[in-house]
Amino acid sequence: MSWTRRLRLCAAGAVAASALFSPPAVHAAEPNDGRLTDLVNPFIGTQNEGNTYPGAAVPFGMVQLSPDTGHRTGYDYTQNRIRGFSLVHLSGVGCAIGGDLPVLPTTGDVTETDDAKYAATFSHADEQASPGYYRVGLDTGIEAELTATERTGVQRYTFPATDKANVLLNAGQALHKNVSSKVEILDDHTVRTEITGSGFCRSTRPYTVYTVTRFDRPFTVHGTWYQDSITPGATKSSGPGRNGAYVTFDTTKDRTVEATTALSYVDAHGAEVNLDATNGSSFDQLREAARLAWEDRLDDVRVQGGSDTLRTSFYSSLYRSFLAPNIGSDADGRYTGWDQRIHRARGFTYYQNWSLWDTYRTQCQLLSLLAPREARDMAISVLKIDEEGGWLPKWGYGPVETNIMSGDPVTPFLTHAYHQGLLKGYEDRAYRALKKNADGVPPADTMYVGRESNREYIANGYAPLIKSRPYRKPGDSDYHHGGSVTLEFALSDAMLAQMARDLGHDADAARYAARSRNYRNVFDRSTGFFRARNADGGFDGPADPARSEGFHEGTAWQYQWLVPQDLPGMVGLIGGEQAANDRLDTFFAYDRMLKDPGRTAREVWVNGPYAYYNADKYNPQNEPDLIAPYTYLSTGEPWKTTDVVHAALTLFTDGPTGITGNDDLGTMSAWNVLSSVGIFPVQPGYPTWGLTTPVFDRVDLVLDRSYYPRGGLTITAPGTSDSDRYIQGVRLNGTAYERTYVTTDALRRLDTLDFTLGARPSGWGTAPDAAPPALK
């Protein structure tokens, strides 16, 4: 709950409310000039494959109404033609998905049915965006404005004076592969569609969305099209290929047309229910409601200090961190489960869209801090996938599994939720699902791949690299990434061992803990690096770790630090702390970085948005490296974590190229937020938070009292700057603290976390017991 809401409750004088939300021991910092939403730039990440979108959405909303310019994932800042404003976008994904029902206003006769041909040009000089709102002036003289609710996209078009003001509703084209579509004009205000699509990365499993669009005034002319054939006056069109409808208004006097489009993944009735939930509110009312929803979210984090650019980058990252996962249940609670049957969410909101390989490292942790009620519902939703569909997900879109990426990301996602207290009442169900996932392989006749190479991993202690193995199911195959899969399975086993031990499953805990050390089985002592092994047990691929094979979107250099469950053991493998620090320094080009952090980040670390392979340096734009800078916290040189993190933060700016790599449903943005405030989840799946120098003088976090009894946490770092960035000391609630990490239990007892900084590294955090301990 934000400070704004608390103040409103107090001002109302509600006795019950003031008792429940009594002022916390910490005090909110003063807000920046203006509204926090004014600090958000939705165009950040829309260029150079950040793959964000600038359109309108509310926090975790089902609908993301945004322009599509012809880029495969939606909008690209370098392009100047809009094909339509479509309903569904995922922030920062690398493959095409969504883009359902692109709608575009036009004038004149309707002669084209392909959105690439009837697209309208525009200029960024006549374009603006803010949380919950988007506006653009098209070169046709039409102004388009967009806003959103949880389950609807709302459009307002201002036309020139004409009797041929059209709105084109294209059911047959999208960002995904369109399987089939149906469009139906119900009356002179309403158009309904049914769209079936597929095709996220290598996935081919179809899903269906239903929409209903209601205009605020009757249209005077209408028609439909199929492929290139336009039929004036027709009310229906369906089948594979391009299906669409157009409606025409007379705007010679009243130039404005408003339309609300509701989305459902259940059925047409669900779309109607979601449309009715807007209660007939006007565009301006819904736009302001969307802005207030975002203001309320952003208000849970108040910062002092830092430049305008830094604050814009920070709040824009915070904004993107709240865009997903997305509501999947309709206003009546119904949703389509992974068994493709209709269910009803009772006592929780059902969520969908699970980029787990990405988000288990940063974004789910941030949500557990700042949105624990929603994070609880998200975790319950994942358990429902297992209960209804038969297995836990890997990378889920809507009601289907795409099987994209590898390893076992759902385990640290759920064990983190467990340790944060988000699974109360669901502990046993969660453990049963995780145990089934950890010890088995999904049946061949299901859509899941799960831990595809689990039999070999359990039998031999490693997942084999079998480059020639054909794909058995659409998506990715663990057999093509045996080196990194072994590391990720071992990480997940470590996290499940801790949960098993907590729940009293001691034999399971010992078994999973033993498996968590399987990372040692892919360590090649002749090279000093991890290396994939083939089915016969031999090491496979080039010996050069920069040219290694079998590591998903990375190399052995980048994956070498992905042993957060046992960094002391990994450090021992490569020769001890000094050898580890030497290797880390090489990895980060540390000496060069000290002299020129920003240039090193851009010219040495980053080699293109999808340059994942053939590299021996840190890659801050992809997930395998997200924890790597924090390794210094465990090697006796914690000040170097600050150096590397602050250099990486220079990659986040306030322009269209201001995200490093795909944002991956808020993953990179959450890294920016957590690293900027000075606490970072260094053992994903376990409640351990590494400490590093904040970039703001003061940060006030509002925390939900149901999970954090103190109600808030103030983090201070007076005078933090490029010159004074080294930690001289840390105090928890005023008491000196020498460790480089805190636990969630400690955070729940904290009012204040204070950093004292200086111009040179100190001895803080260098004692033998200062580092995060290995998990046993």
What are the main properties of this structure?
Beta-galactosidase, Chain A, domain 5, single chain, 6-stranded mixed beta sheet, 22 helices, 10-stranded antiparallel beta sheet, 776 residues, alpha+beta
Describe the structure.
Helix 11 runs antiparallel to helix 13 (482-502) and helix 13 (482-502) runs antiparallel to helix 14 (506-515). The longest helix is centred in the middle third of the chain and has 21 residues, at 482-502. The protein has 22 helices and 35 strands. The relative contact order is 0.10. A ten-stranded antiparallel sheet has the order 2-5-6-7-8-17-12-11-10-15, covered by helices on one side. Strands 18-30-31-35-32-33 form a six-stranded mixed sheet, covered by helices on one side. A five-stranded antiparallel sheet has the order 4-9-16-13-14, with no helix packed on it. It is globular and about 80 Å long. The protein has a domain at 36-295: Beta-galactosidase, Chain A, domain 5 (Distorted Sandwich), CATH 2.70.98.10. The chain has 776 residues and is an alpha+beta fold.
Q: What's a quick, concise take on this entry?
A:
With 776 residues, the chain is α+β, with helices and mostly antiparallel strands. It is built from 22 helices and 35 strands.
User: At the first level of CATH, what is the class of the domain at 36-295?
Assistant: Mainly Beta
Helix content: 25-40%
Kindly report how far apart the N and C termini lie.
36 Å
Q: Uncertain spans, ≥5 residues at pLDDT below 50?
A: 1-32
Specify the number of helices.
22
**Major beta sheet, specifics?**
10 strands, antiparallel
User: Rg to the nearest angstrom?
Assistant: 26 Å
